[in-house]
Amino acid sequence: MTIQYFGVGTNLPVQFKNKKDAVIISPFYENWIAAAPTGTKRYYSIALPVTLSKSIKNTAWSFLLTGILRMNDRKIDAHGKMQAGGAFILNNTRNENLTWKLGIYVNNEFFNVFVMPLAGIDWKINDRNMLFGVLPGNLTYEHRINEHFLLWRLFQGHYKFLLHIPGLLANQ
Fold this sequence. Notes:
With 172 residues, the protein is mostly beta strands. Helices cover 0% and strands 69% of the residues.
């Protein structure tokens, strides 16, 4: 059996006047092809997550509130199976180098309501090392080798090693 995957998406932030808060629209499309000796099946997913990123005035607290509409099926049409879900993540900034995150993800899956706790961190360990992410989705350790090279170790359901050269692939 072979599985092919293709996905494309973007983030479109709309920042508020206070420069701390924003609405982020993150549409994406995914396509899977599963081929086996008994035949080939195609599936797609179209989703529209919309997130409010909000700071709580005069405190160390902020939050992300996301609503997600998603359609999954074998073909794109008006009869697709719609899912509604969302996430809430509460952030506590301990200092300029450390933010803790705690939240919940809820989705109306095909079999029932699915609920998953979330825990995360944004930690600038020192000038060369950072740890950031929200589990169980992803957790990244970043090490700056020098001003030209970054090395990442990324946990995303499995580990990946990435080498990034700032400025090589995009303006930074």
